[in-house]
Amino acid sequence: MSVVVTAVFTPVAGSRERLVEALQEAVPAVHEEPGCLLYAIHDAEDGSIVMIEKWASDGDLAAHAEGSAVARLNTLIDGLIAKPVLVTTMAALPAGTTAQGAL
Predict the structure, then answer these.
(1) Where are the alpha helices (DSSP H) in the chain?
(2) Cβ contacts of 25-29, under 8 Å, gap ≥ 24
(3) Alpha-carbon distance 52 to 40, whole Å?
(4) Residue 29 CB partners (closer than 8 Å, separation 6+)
(5) Which domain range does residue 23 map to?
(6) Residue 103 belongs to some domain of the structure
(7) What is residue 61's DSSP assignment?
(8) 49-83 pLDDT, tens per residue?
(9) How many domains does the chain have?
């Protein structure tokens, strides 16, 4: 079963654009990782940047977390975030239609 993750990045004052650029630079390498079904950044109304991810399996997510793309991402965002990234891992509870009831 697939795994959905959100990662919330809170930029240091004045570094929002640089944080977005760093995340945009990191995304293509993650898209090439096995099991990556979705890895997309979003602008939240509270000023944070939210990464929404979907992985084919827990194993793919674990490999991603230990991989070179995350290491590079961490280097790119160093000094640009005000607090640790808030990561939440979720499992779908499908409801309604197959297309609309789960990520």
Answers:
(1) 16-31, 58-66, 68-77
(2) 25/76, 26/69, 26/72, 26/73, 26/76, 29/68, 29/69, 29/72
(3) 5
(4) 68, 69, 72
(5) 3-90
(6) no
(7) H
(8) 999 999 999 999 999 999 999 999 999 999 999 99
(9) 1
